[in-house]
Amino acid sequence: MLTVIEGGAVATVDAARSEHADGHVVCDGERIVAVGPGPAPAGLLARADRRIDARGCLVTPGLVNCHHHLYQFAFRGLAQEATLFEWLVALYPAWAHIDAGVVDATARAGLAALAVSGCTTTTDHHYIFPRDGGDLLGVEIEAARAIGLRFHPCRGAMDLGERDGGLPPDHVVEDRDAILTAYDDAIDRFHDPQPGAMLRIALAPTSPFSVTTELLRETAQLARRRGVRLHTHLAETVEEEAFCLEQFGARPLDYLDGVGWLGDDVWMAHCVHLDEPDIARMAQTGTGVAHCPSSNARLGAGIAPVRALLDAGAPVGLGVDGAASWEAGELAAEMTMALLVARAAGGPHALTVRHVLEVATHHGARCLGRDDELGHLSVGALADVAIWRLADDPGYAGIADPVAALVLGPARPVDTLLVHGRVVVEGRELRTADPVTLARDLAAASARMAELAP
Ligand SMILES: [Zn+2]
Nearest 5°: CA angle at 17, between 14 and 19? Predict the structure, then answer.
């Protein structure tokens, strides 16, 4: 399938950050074969199976979501005025009831929300595995195949329950040996290390306050032995810092450094409470950050030092985080929020619209170890493309800079989304699932969880 996109503005986010006011992108199957100004080369046009008229549109790389908990779509609107620790203590007992049906409904709804908001690649950090809950990782992977997104799910884990000084109740944590076995099993069943992969596994103990030091150390060793990436939450709140100082005698970043957790194969969610030496260490080690400004704002956790991290050279991707801490779960809106909170704290030069587009695309791909073939529109890159309709929508019409229109204008569904060269969204509508069915199944799952909540 040869797809020619032409007539629109193109922001490539390539190495030279090339932009074309009127350009083309041509995809042959799952790869991009031409990008540039003006019309597509005549030889390619003659062979086109599909032509997309992008006049009045902005064409960008598909957005990359670096942090999520899809199952939380069944727990929205709860604990609305809580700090992170209050929110977790309120929700852990409810989360303990999830099963394959809940994970299926929430994953499909959450992945659909990502797709219509321009996301082509997402991770998910799943860390609740109730006994007899079913094959939850397998269920969400099947959902991602059905919706059509490129997927980097994390096999999450918690092994530090209340009785051992952790935050989660004892009945939602797992045994460490069982977790290590589950890691290997997830990699054996699902991980695709090949170029162009639609699915890669990462390993992700949940947070310093819900896992043991031994699990952190052994997870890092196993991940490096198996060649997969590492993910966790870090420095989200001031309470986490106090917890780490009391339990481990170290601040969160020092603690993780001590167990082998800094490196260019690691990315961590939040990183709100980093000081200047921490920021330098993240950059020197190539450790990535998943910036989740809406979730951080909803939980009142603070604002991550994104500009300082970028200036130091650290990869900083965007994340919507779980829908229990930001109900919308839509990625394009997170670009707007990243810019606004950075400027609210740091003034009008804190971040530009092009910084946030880079964060949402190229940097996100770096966090997931995929920047060789994702996060930019370049010849040889994967055909993950977002087309945003701007000129004929009064919400954006007349905004001279299309990247500013995308970041500062209204949050509308993406017009067309290609993942691996395949159409997932077209005419602002999801083509791979019926939104009415998704909503009905999500409402039923949420109601069932509400009934079971303590
Ligand atoms: Zn999270």
Answer: 105
- Do residues 318 and 331 make contact, with C-beta atoms less than 8 angstroms apart? yes
Between the CA of 131 and the centroid of ligand 1 the distance, in Å, is: 22
CA–centroid distance, 67 to ligand 1, in Å, is 6
What is the Cα gyration radius of the chain?
A: 21
Backbone angles phi, psi at 340, to 5 degrees: -65, -45
Whether 191 contacts 202, CB under 8 Å: no
Ligand 1 center from residue 126 Cα (angstroms): 9
Per the structure block, which two tokens stand in for 346? 């740091």
Read off the tokens for 448: 């069932």
3-state helix, strand, coil in the chain (%, to 5): 40, 20, 40
- How far is Cα 121 from Cα 203, in angstroms, rounded to an integer? 17
Residue 157's nearest CA partner among 178, 184, 185, 133 is: 178
**31 CA distance to ligand 1 middle (Å):** 32
Structure token pair of residue 278: 């921490």
Residue 453: what pLDDT? 80
First to last CA, the chain: 52
Conformational region of residue 410, where left means phi above 0, alpha means psi within -120 to 50, and beta covers everything else: beta
- Give me the residues paired with residue 13 across strands: none
Greatest distance between any 2 Cα atoms in the chain: 69
Q: 369 CA to middle of ligand 1, Å?
A: 19
Q: Across-strand partners of 419?
A: 422
Q: How far is the CA of 448 from the centre of ligand 1 (A)?
A: 23
Q: Are 433 and 439 in contact (CB under 8 A)?
A: no
Rounded Cα distance between 332 and 292, Å, is: 12
Q: Above pLDDT 70, what percent of the chain?
A: 100
Spacing, Cα 66 to ligand 1 middle (Å): 10
Q: What is the pLDDT of residue 171?
A: 87
Report how far ligand 1's centroid is from the alpha carbon of 29 (Å): 34
Query: Between 176-190 and 213-226, two packed helices, what is the crossing angle to 10 degrees?
Result: 20
- Which residue shows structure tokens 């947070």? 207
- pTM, entire model: 0.98
pLDDT tier, 231 (very low <50, low <70, confident <90, very high otherwise)? very high
Between the CA of 395 and the centroid of ligand 1 the distance, in Å, is 32
Which candidate, 24, 59, 19, 20, places its Cα nearest to that of 40? 24
Closest by CA to 269, choosing from 254, 285, 252, is 252
pLDDT at 43: 96
Tens of pLDDT, residues 134-148? 999 999 999 999 999
Strand pairing partners for 233? 269
